[in-house]
Amino acid sequence: GFGCLASETGLADALSAADVVVTGEGRLDRTTFDGKLVARILERAAPRRCLLIVGQATAAGSQAAMDAGASAIFALARTPSEAADAVANPQTRLAQAATQIARLLVP
């Protein structure tokens, strides 16, 4: 699982050199923090700023992410109709999230 992925990708070295960590999840909810990749990355990335790009987020998932150390959450879809659009036009939604992140990081 996670240990193998972290070892094979050099995650520890990448995190030690990072100022900001960007990771993602399809749906951010309570189950996200039951050992899934995002939760494990947040654990190891502290105290760096961690930005999450997610397909959708529940209120409970968002709160759990913030409690776990996320600095900001960028949801590609907030409503069911936006979810359908995000699936149909992922490039547009990801570009919007990237623009928001750039505005946050670049003075």
Going across the major beta sheet, what is the strand order?
1-2-3
Order of helices and strands: HHEHEHEHH
Beta-strand content bin: 15-25%
Task: Please work out how many helical segments DSSP would assign.
Answer: 6
Shape assignment: globular
> Quick one: how many beta strands?
3
> How many whole angstroms does the radius of gyration measure?
14 Å
Largest sheet: 3 strands, parallel
Cα distance spanning the termini:
38 Å
Average pLDDT, to the nearest integer? 89
Q: Residue ranges: pLDDT <50 for 5 or more in a row?
A: none
- Helix percent reads 40-55%
Provide a brief overview of the structure.
By secondary structure, the protein is α/β, with parallel strands linked by helices.
Please describe the structure with a list of short key phrases separated by commas or semicolons.
alpha/beta, 21% strand
Write the layout of secondary structure elements.
Blueprint: H1 2-9, H2 11-17, E1 20-28, H3 37-45, E2 49-57, H4 59-67, E3 72-75, H5 80-88, H6 90-105
Parallel strand pairs: 1-2, 2-3
Helix pairs in contact: 5-6
